[in-house]
Amino acid sequence: MLDRPLRAAIVGDVNVGKSTLVNALLRHRIVVTHHAENTAWNWWFQAAGPDGPRIRVIRRDRPGEDTYKITDSAEVAALPAASVEKVIAELDEPVLADLTIIDTPGLHSQVQENSGRTADLLGVHPRGEQETLAGVGKADVLIYVSDQLPGSSDAERIAGGFRRLGVGSIKTPVDILLVFAQVDKLGFKSQNPLARAAEIAAAHRPEWESVAWNVKPVIAQLAQTARCGVLDASLLGALRKLAALPKGREAACRSVDMLVRRLNTQVDESGAKDLWQNLLPYGLSLGFALADRGELTAENLAAALEKASGIAALESVINDIFRRRQGLLRSAIAMRRLSHAAFADGDTRTLSRIEDMYASAYGRELRDLNDLRTASDQNTPLRPGQREELRVLFSGDYAGTPGEAAKAAVRWLRPANVPGTPPVLRTLALHAAAAYGRLAESKESR
Ligand SMILES: Nc1nc2c(ncn2[C@@H]2O[C@H](COP(=O)(O)OP(=O)(O)OP(=O)(O)O)[C@@H](O)[C@H]2O)c(=O)[nH]1
Ligand SMILES: [Mg+2]
């Protein structure tokens, strides 16, 4: 537990683009993506060991595992779901240093067997009404992918899907990054869709902050196209022909059928479909702009698609909130498991040692992280302003003066001393007062 890499599971409803995003992060087109429901088991991606890159298939129908070459991933994907327990792909990719990425079958799938595998991984029941199986989940943090922006008619599914699954009782927002996928569907006539999605996300913060630490919009399809060696000579040739159509190239981008029809004398049907599938209307428009300037090369198009996809900004958030803090996150998970077990066994000696550890200077970071979890948990009875204040304080982002910190320390001592304050709030308030007290001192001594 303490020396394995942090595990990030990519979860979300069927067909939102989870596997496309995983391929883009891996810079490898390895998981098959499809317009129909697709991923049937969990794909674990981890750093290659001494045996080099390979795919291991853990069987369900018999003991043992089979090994495949990375280039045989399509063969693996075609195996019958009933015979596969899980697949572990070991790759030499920088994103996998210190981080295991797990692609999962869609939630709320028609095929309950598939969604059940994701529920198993998370340690929840696929039907959330029942009690959750807290503590047996195998994923440490979640990257929750949604194609519904807040404010849309279906947006309740973002928070509702979590509640129904019972994820909220085992993971707090500290463990979850929300990704708004397929934001190219917002349209791009007047404004860049990433910027529009970011504005919408900011305006609807209260709707998502109860489930996630941060939100990033992404166009995974364009990221995959930019990074996975798709931009070959035949695709660029087809794009050049489309860009040079005497009139109505924009109209040809209204649907895949229109595109096939408009290009039919110059490009075969599968070439036209590839163009549509890989670039989407938004990527085609970026290609036209390059063609008009005489700058349409594979490198230039890849750079434009990468920029338009938002993938680099997403990676930097993954680094900030998960990779950079992974040692701390892993220690915290190990400590929580230890205290759960000690509590279940009535082992008071271990429980009091854990208490001592949290109280020591050595345990302070762990305690701050626990307080951060408590403060961002919607079940903790805090006012919105207080919740935000504590999140800033316990993430180490406080930027006030020593005088302000000293005043805040006094302010937080009050609820701690009011009779009838719930114990969870009392502890949190005492910790907040102490944290502000330390900040006041350390800033003064600088
Ligand atoms: N418009 C648009 N379509 C996308 C984007 N990303 C993926 N898609 C399409 O959405 C469909 C589903 O993509 P997948 O990556 O297979 O989705 P998934 O969430 O892994 O699906 P399951 O594994 O079945 O749950 C495919 O047809 C993709 O081409 C995107 O950014 N924009
Ligand atoms: Mg998938």
Count helical runs: 19
Given as residue ranges, the uncertain stretches (5+ residues, pLDDT < 50) are 128-136
What's the SSE pattern?
Answer: EHEEEHEEHEHEHHEHHHHHHHHHHHHH
Distance between the termini: 38 Å
How would you sum up the major sheet? 9 strands, mixed
**Unique ligands:** guanosine-5'-triphosphate, magnesium ion
Name of the level-1 CATH class of the largest domain: Alpha Beta
Structural class: alpha/beta
CATH-derived topology of the largest domain: Rossmann fold
Q: How would you describe what is shown here?
A:
The protein is α/β, with parallel strands linked by helices. It has three domains: 6-218, Rossmann fold; 223-309, no CATH class; 360-444, no CATH class. It is 50% helix and 11% strand. The protein contains 19 helices and nine strands. It has helices spanning 18-26, 73-77, 112-122, 156-165, 193-203, 205-208, 220-227, 233-243, 249-252, 256-262, 269-292, 298-309, 311-323, 326-344, 348-359, 364-376, 384-394, 402-417, 423-444, and strands spanning 6-12, 42-47, 54-59, 65-68, 84-91, 99-103, 141-146, 176-180, 214-217. The chain has a nine-stranded mixed sheet, with helices on both faces. Helix 4 (156-165) links the parallel strand 7 and strand 8 (176-180). Helix 10 (256-262) packs across helix 11 and helix 18 packs antiparallel against helix 19. The structure holds guanosine-5'-triphosphate and magnesium ion (MG). Residues 18-19, 38-39 line the site of magnesium ion. Residues 8-151 form the G domain. GO terms for molecular function: GTP binding. This is GTPase. InterPro entries: GTP-bd, P-loop_NTPase. Pfam families: MMR_HSR1.
